[in-house]
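Example with several molecule types.
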Amino acid sequence: MFRIIEKKEMAQGTVFQLKVDAPLIARKASPGQFVIVRVNETGERIPLTMAGTDPLAGTITLIFQVVGKTTALMGTLKEGAYLTDVVGPLGRPTHIENLGTVICVGGGTGIAVLYPITRAYREIGNQVITIIGARTKDLLILEEEMRAVSNELIITTDDGSYGRRGFVTDVLRQLLTGPNNIKLVITMGPVPMMKAVSALSREYGVRSLVSLNSIMVDGTGMCGACRVTVAGRTKFTCVDGPEFDGLEVDYDELMKRQKAYISEEKASLDSFTAGKQRGR
Ligand SMILES: Cc1cc2nc3c(=O)[nH]c(=O)nc-3n(C[C@H](O)[C@H](O)[C@H](O)COP(=O)(O)OP(=O)(O)OC[C@H]3O[C@@H](n4cnc5c(N)ncnc54)[C@H](O)[C@@H]3O)c2cc1C
Ligand code: FES
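Resulting structure tokens for the full complex:
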């Protein structure tokens, strides 16, 4: 059992941050790794990236967006409550290199996944330009944290309610066109955004790194749920990733596989919401 030490609401009741007591994981984890969480005995297993770790305090930080039944249930848990299982650290740590200038692009809760990686790239001596985007101001997360680990932070909102109006790719194109000598574009967020960012990187001949959010079950390479195609070869996101060369990923297949259980997921969320309304 893993105790929730602290809970913070980050955006309109749809994005939460939990600090969880998990000393063994906190001691071993590196940027880019994730855990698989089971909220209760009968719950499904969901992967969540560690947005931060504190080895001395023995805690890990998870940031999640409410998108379905399990994340909705997690959103109702209070400080002092327990998660039944937290397994990790899983996945390969990010390969951190001193390259010169890198651009980090984050969208939605992908910003939480990007945060520890941005910090690690800056700490090793890179010049880091970060672009973060959200549909609207109230959904933007981790602005101050991202500013603190970037040389420059640019914000976009689709509706223009904060920062520059438009998509992260509009700003990325300007930066790639300019005299910045960009060596790498790192991107995390919704799959269509990662696909668009990688296409732009290709256009300008710049390397791209993405963190994939395929559906996972065991997280240890046994079940095949997280299968993706990278450079024409089958890979498992949980053990071969979650990060891959963004120019080589088959994004259309990934999007199709993410929708495989959409009707079951909807039914599960509907039944959870109806139960909550009846006070169960
Ligand atoms: C390596 C990795 C790291 C992730 N890190 C984060 C994070 O830090 N913060 C965050 O908000 N989200 C993260 N995700 C996505 C998160 O796991 C899903 O949002 C969550 O599983 C949804 O569960 P649900 O029951 O609430 O929604 P559901 O209704 O079950 O699903 C909603 C959508 O979430 C995706 N999904 C569903 N089940 C899974 C699953 N078992 N594994 C992966 N995706 C699933 C599908 O695209 C689905 O259509 C990560 C995913 C991966 C693979
Ligand atoms: S989650 Fe089962 S193989 Fe990756």
